[in-house]
Amino acid sequence: MDFYLSKEHLMAKQLFNDFAVNEVEPWAEETDEFHRFPWEVVHKMQEVGLLGIPFPKELGGQGCDTLVYILAVEEISKVCATSGVILSAHTSLAADAIYMHGTDEQKEKFLRPLIDGRKLGSFALTEAEAGTDAAGQQTKAVRDGDEWLINGSKIFITNAQVADTYVVFAMTDKAAGTRGISAFIIEKGTPGFTFGPPEKKMGIRGSSTCELIFEDCRIPIGNLLGREGKGFGIAMSTLDGGRIGIAAQALGIAEGALEKTVQYVKERKQFNSPIAKFQNTQFVLAQMKTDIEAVRWLVYHAALKKDSGKPFSNEAAMAKLKASQVASDVTRECVQLHGGYGFIQGFHVERMMRDAKITEIYEGTSEVMKMVISASLLK
Amino acid sequence: MNIIVCIKQVPDTTEVRLDPVKGTLIRQDVPSIMNPDDKAGLEAALRLKDERGAHVTVISMGPRQADAVLREALAMGADEAYLITDSAFSGADTWATSSTLAAAISKLDYDLIITGRQAIDGDTAQVGPETAEHLGIPHISYCEELQIEGNEVVVKRQFEDRYQIVSAKMPALITALGELNKPRYMTPGGIFEAYREKEVIVWSRNDVPVEDENIGLKGSPTRVIKTNPKKLKQPGTVIETGVDESVQYLVEKLKEKYIL
């Protein structure tokens, strides 16, 4: 038992750091400013194998573990939270749902192109009236001969317009409540499947977020993911994994903001002295660093727990709850240490502070994380 | 086709500082990296492997920690790795290093050997060509482009103001410039394979057929007597006058320094 990364994990971290600095950071400001999807970054991620990190080589993946994948999300999010969530939604929501619940045929047809980097994935659960209350799904799927007929819509979907393959949840038996939800795999270009206009967001502005609209959309019966009526369980277990990804994104945002701030306080002079010489600066930096290191082990531990095959919902919830809080707190303090420059575009921390907020909301709000954690205490 | 690439682990000199008093390198906390010219050489070998198929072997002489750059090479796509390490080899200058490397390489099959032009920690640019001499094969240095034509390697060889196109019958050795290409990234799966499925074969003193008088510090004719750090230059003087006066001023200054 130790708290050090293995040599291979350290080398992977170094790779992701080089990749982030050379291939991701140069696009980060533009991605945010123009709400522009960073295709250059995604193509590079495809080239280097980053879209299939925790999946077996036999399926076209990299054959690594969850911790390696988490290190990738962390390092990339240090410089660009938008790129971090693209990777996270693709890997731990779309691809992992199919990997965990798909048939061999579905894995060959839908998963292989996702993890060998040819296609991008997306996961659609949230609806206008069904956010935290995921059981309130209105989207319906009705069996019609050899097909499923899908009607309804999903909102706030990450990788919406840019993805090729979607894991979509719909009610197959409204009366059965959560036991009436099923999961489906739907491909872009299927007739009856269209998109709403892109959302204008406070942060992670380059990521593609919009509504998915299904109007008499027909898909083959073979596109049912898992068994009929088991969709709620699939959604919840997939989100458990997704939360570790978001926790890693939050950790990365906090680390990235701290790095920029350490550099800034050494250069910025007031009263003839770099502001790093002032004790207020030193104390704030020390607190931030301590919070970040505490979060790091929560996040890595959740990843290791997932790989151990044991239940990890609690660890994932605690990691996401704490990491997202720390990301918000740290980025806010970093803006404060930058003073007026922290409020100006181009100094990065302003963007990072806006990006951090969403980590407290998506893939389960902080309040949902508290429900999960307290439920395990009070059972 | 068998390609051997020689790589060296070096301190990342962009992050090295000098001790202002002792004039020595402060190596503490300086990350170690694969020497950039060597990395370009490895990339060239891997491209040949992608294009026409080749078996790429990487070899490094250095301390145990040099294992890391060999694993990195494996993670980029090299097939086999050898680490030549022994206290008997330490303190080697370019003569002893090239003698050792050549002896180790003589045990392996090769059509082409690629080394970097020079290492960023020593900048001698001697080990590649010397290795070729020990092996008795032709070498072409300063390669900025290369291709294989039949049993020849054809190289665009860089000079300050021109280039040469030179070919050599293989087996041959070339020394690669960093400008040769942009090396690929490792892949995450490649890293796992490099540590979990592949091995770095370690050769010590007795595995390398080289004479005692040509290895290590004792086998090194080079002696470093003293090193001097570069002194900082004085800030320049700015003179703002008309053209005629400036010329006059410059001529006087140059005479003063005995340049004119």
Describe the structure.
The complex is a heterodimer of chains A (379) and B (260). By secondary structure, chain A is of the alpha+beta class. Chain A folds into three domains: 7-120, Acyl-CoA dehydrogenase/oxidase, N-terminal domain (Butyryl-Coa Dehydrogenase, subunit A, domain 1), CATH 1.10.540.10; 122-232, Butyryl-CoA Dehydrogenase, subunit A, domain 2 (Beta Barrel); 233-378, Butyryl-CoA Dehydrogenase, subunit A, domain 3, CATH 1.20.140. Chain A has ten helices and ten strands. Chain A has a four-stranded mixed β-sheet with strand order 1-4-5-8. In chain A, strand 9 (269-270) and strand 10 form a beta hairpin. In chain A, helix 6 (231-267) packs antiparallel against helix 7 (279-308). The radius of gyration of chain A is 21 Å and the shape is globular. Chain B is of the alpha/beta class and 260 residues long. Chain B has a single domain, classed as Rossmann fold. In chain B, the strands form three sheets. A nine-stranded mixed β-sheet of chain B has the order 11-10-9-12-8-1-6-7-13, sandwiched between helices. Chain B has a two-stranded antiparallel ribbon with strand order 2-5. In chain B, helix 3 crosses helix 4. Chain B is globular and about 70 Å long. Chains A and B meet through helix 1 of A and helix 2 and helix 5 of B.
Run of helices and strands of chain A: HHHHHEEEEEEEEHEEHHHH
For CATH, the homologous superfamily of the largest domain in chain A is named as: Butyryl-CoA Dehydrogenase, subunit A, domain 3
Radius of gyration of chain A, rounded?
A: 21 Å
- At the third CATH level, what is the topology name of the largest domain in chain A? Butyryl-CoA Dehydrogenase, subunit A, domain 3
Amount of helix of chain A: 40-55%
C-alpha end-to-end distance of chain A: 30 Å
| CATH class value of chain B | Alpha Beta
Report the mean per-residue pLDDT of chain B as an integer: 92
The count of helical stretches of chain A stands at 10
Greatest interface by residues involved = A-B, 19 and 16 residues
Oligomer: heterodimer
Count of domain modules of chain A: 3
* Integer-rounded radius of gyration of chain B: 22 Å
CATH architecture of chain B: 3-Layer(aba) Sandwich
Biggest sheet: strand arrangement of chain B: 11-10-9-12-8-1-6-7-13
State the low-pLDDT regions of chain B, or none: none
> Which class of secondary structure composition applies to the elements of chain A?
alpha+beta
* Tertiary shape of chain B: globular
Largest sheet of chain A: 4 strands, mixed
Number of helices of chain B: 6
